[in-house]
Fold:
Amino acid sequence: MLPNSGEVTVTWAQCESGSVSGFADDCFYDLQYTLGTGQESYFETRETNSFKMNIVQGINYCFRVRARNSCANGMWSHEECRSVCARPEAPQAPTLVRKSEQEITVEWDTCKTNGQECSDCSYELEITRENGTKRVETIYNRTQYTIQYPRSSTPYSFRVRCNSATCREGEWSPVLTE
Structure:
């Protein structure tokens, strides 16, 4: 029902001609949706059996629908609740902490989602050699990485991105070339 971005479409079964009044075209639909903030809204329609609205990432949405006609209101459907993932923000470019013949150490910012520290994020660090050789390291619970005994004749480039365990990966940071 909910995608990972800014729009949702809720659909339901249409009234059948066996409605209380005997005519499907005497049927209306009430859609109730509640935001995680507790705000309730109603939408009434006769023309369609779907509803489309813009949504905000990180907010929980609950929907339910009922049919009604000139004789009576139907029962509310089961309430469906979902939230939309907020994509982690791209960190700043990694910074060079230490460079020697024995090691190169880089560090980067903590992941953020909607300006808040991401509690379920890991990191992907892309390491590229000047000759184009790339590798990606997945890193948990730390914001620093060390390459032991680097080949000092070939420069390295680094970039990092955050991955949310419950959502998806963020954008890559700008590149640091040492």
